[in-house]
Amino acid sequence: MLLLDEPFAGLDATTRTDLVADLRAVLDDLDTATVLVTHDRHEAHALAGRTALLVAGRIRQHGPTARVLDRPADADCAQLVGCTNLLPPALTGRSGLLVARPEHCRPLRLDDAPPPGDVRVPGTVRRIVPLGAGVRIDVDPESGGRPLACLVPAGGAVGLQRGSPTAVTVANADLRAVPPDA
């Protein structure tokens, strides 16, 4: 058995990407069980056929990697796989807790209507952080609760500034229903 414990943790982004691709090629030709420990869902997606999520020392979800990453079992698992926006019924008007990844959330002007079926949460821009090819926009929901994060391409924050009103929208197809906690 081969154990790889955070093998890419100390690497720059370019080297990490190259080595993930190289390791994938090696693992394809290797007839050895491999355990990869990582906090990076992109590494897990690229390298693992099956994934187990550990929360507080317990396996909370396991199965085929694509399913685990796309269908978290509960709110804690959702956080681990990048669905960091928690949308309780008070924000969405829907029953049950919904989660969404920041890259699936979009800020809109308050007078813009989202497509039918999308969740729309009005709020105020908390901060805008440029991240190279993208921008992170954090929004405080007007009805309270945890801030929501949006990751948009560079230039996606045009017309927004700290303190400006906005609405976060998420397409229905990008929402996942989860129980609050296990």
Secondary structure topology:
Layout: E1 2-5, H1 13-29, E2 34-37, H2 41-47, E3 50-55, E4 58-64, H3 65-70, H4 75-80, E5 85-87, H5 89-92, E6 97-100, E7 105-108, E8 119-130, E9 134-141, E10 148-153, E11 165-170, E12 176-178
Parallel strand pairs: 1-2
Antiparallel strand pairs: 3-4, 5-6, 6-12, 7-11, 8-9, 8-11, 9-10
Structure description:
A five-stranded antiparallel beta sheet has the order 7-11-8-9-10, with no helix packed on it. The protein has a three-stranded antiparallel beta sheet with strand order 5-6-12. The chain is globular and about 55 Å long. The longest helix has 17 residues. By secondary structure, the chain is α+β, with helices and mostly antiparallel strands. Strand 3 and strand 4 form a beta hairpin. Helix content is 22%, strand content 37%. The chain starts with a strand and ends with a strand.
Which labels suit this protein?
182 residues, alpha+beta, five-stranded antiparallel beta sheet, three-stranded antiparallel beta sheet, 5 helices, 12 strands, globular
Give the strand tally. 12
* Spatial order of the strands forming the largest sheet: 7-11-8-9-10
Distance between the termini: 31 Å
Query: What's the average pLDDT?
Result: 92
Structural class: alpha+beta
Instruction: Tell me roughly what share of residues is in helical segments.
Output: 10-25%
- What is the molecular shape? globular
